[in-house]
Specification:
It is built from three helices and five strands. It has helices at about 5-15, 20-25, 80-90, and strands spanning about 1-5, 35, 50-55, 60-65, 70-80.
């Protein structure tokens, strides 16, 4: 998998959510990760949300697009308690 992102957005995301985009890329390697279409944020482009456990053991919610097999990260944050519960219950 190849990843790309805007450096300014990555810095802002780290400050706001405490999650680096580098860590976010590792959530895609989680064999139990789940990706879904995000219709609420797909007005200008198709966006997706992936829930996956990072290499630091944190459940992340990653917003992204994909074009020509390159994933462009938009934002990433820790999952909420409710999202963790849903993920754990499968």
């Amino acid at each position: 998998m190849r990843f790309t992102w805007d450096a300014g957005k990555a810095n802002f995301n780290l400050q706001k959510h405490g999650v680096s985009f580098q860590e976010a890329t590792t959530a895609f390697r989680d064999p139990l990760s789940v990706t879904g279409y995000d219709p609420d944020h797909s007005t200008d482009e198709d966006r997706f949300v992936t829930f996956g456990v990072s290499n630091q053991g944190r459940l992340l919610v990653v917003s992204h697009t994909e074009e020509d097999k390159v994933i462009r990260l938009i934002s990433c944050r820790l999952a909420t308690k409710q999202e963790k519960k849903i993920h754990e219950e499968g």
